[in-house]
UniProtKB/TrEMBL annotation:
Keywords: Ribonucleoprotein, Ribosomal protein, RNA-binding, rRNA-binding, tRNA-binding. It comes from Parvularcula mediterranea. Belongs to the universal ribosomal protein uS13 family. Part of the 30S ribosomal subunit. Forms a loose heterodimer with protein S19. Forms two bridges to the 50S subunit in the 70S ribosome. Located at the top of the head of the 30S subunit, it contacts several helices of the 16S rRNA. In the 70S ribosome it contacts the 23S rRNA (bridge B1a) and protein L5 of the 50S subunit (bridge B1b), connecting the 2 subunits; these bridges are implicated in subunit movement. Contacts the tRNAs in the A and P-sites. Residues 95-122 are annotated as: Disordered. It comes from the Bacteria. GO terms for cellular component: cytosol; small ribosomal subunit. This is Small ribosomal subunit protein uS13. The keyword Cell cycle does not apply. GO terms for molecular function: rRNA binding; structural constituent of ribosome; tRNA binding. GO terms for biological process: translation.
Length: 122
């Protein structure tokens, strides 16, 4: 099993599909990496040599922010908004939708499961 950017990528999948298992690399970036390293798109991870895996690893390290660094950067951006006290930061702090969605109904993903309100019958 190949280990790239701290992630064990699956052996039996094609290289461009397996690269999407890394946080921060989607289908488009995966194809870009495969083309940049001059690999065949039909190759599977188990068929790669150590040198080819090293080329992929170096290409990712040089050009992309992935995994822990990306998660840390996103967390810092959200923390900055919260510290500023701007509208988006307040919405993050309260656990409500940030991008203008309605909250009268729906928004259950952000707000969590519905809680009953005491004394509200009729």
């Amino acid at each position: 099993m190949a280990r790239i950017a701290g992630v064990n990528i699956p052996n039996n999948k094609r290289v461009h599909v397996a690269l999407t298992y890394i946080h921060g690399i989607g289908p488009a970036k995966a194809m870009e990496i495969v083309e940049k390293t001059n690999l065949d798109t039909t190759r599977r991870v188990q068929d790669l040599t150590d040198a080819e895996i090293l080329r992929i690893r170096e290409a990712i390290d040089a050009d992309y922010t992935v995994e822990g660094d990306l998660r840390r950067e996103n967390a810092q951006n959200i923390k900055r908004l919260m510290d500023l006290g701007c509208y988006r930061g307040l919405r993050h702090r309260r656990g409500l939708p940030v991008r203008g969605q309605r909250t009268h109904t729906n928004a259950r993903t952000r707000k969590g499961p519905a809680r009953p309100i005491a004394g509200k019958k009729k």
